[in-house]
Specification:
Oligomer: single chain
Order of helices and strands: HHHHHEHEHEHEEHEEH
Largest sheet: 4 strands, parallel
Radius of gyration: 19 Å
Distance between the termini: 47 Å
Amino acid sequence: IDSAYEDMAALILSRTGLVLPSSRRSDVEGAFRKIIAKTGAVDGQKCLDQIEADEQLFDALIAEVTIGETYFFREPDQFTFVRETIIPEIRQLRGPEHGLRVWSAGCSSGEEPYSLAILFEEAGLVGRARILATDISRAALARAKQAEYSAWSLRGDGARFADQYLRRLNGRFELAERFRERVEFAYLNLAQDSYPTFATNTWSMDLILCRNVLIYLDGKTISDVARRLYESLA
């Protein structure tokens, strides 16, 4: 695996902009071994050849090496700021009947966009807010669409805002169906030049949340992503 590791890291960097620091090498090697076992490849280089040619395998690798750290109403002060400052400013600027367009970029398993959906309902904006949620991990998006969570997703001071909208189901928590219907989940690789476009629905956004994503990217990718996110705003 040692001989293929650097090639694997270079492939991930070129396609996603993700930097794999030396401090995470043992974790990433463990992720790589899982993919090798999944493919049945005889060694790391043979597995890497398969990963390069197979989009699903590459997605599986990305799911293993990325850190999907999220929970409901993470950083409550941020959501308070959205409710008390950003929403009133947008409505003043664009009119009270304007339909908000909001994007959760790097949404992982969905707690952030669902928190926004709850916030908009409580703010009286049902039917006047569209939420796009994107991620590079199709596995994370699949979990997000299921909208079933463990108690780990309800940790933190902000969890009380979401608790009333989840019902306990076999030791897990299921989000009310109406909130699931208000979020559009889609695959999007922020490192690729595919936005803002109508095709990806990433145009004319009023608000973009992109938390703890850029810290994993290299400098050039950060610059490119920041520019494209800015261009995606209304």
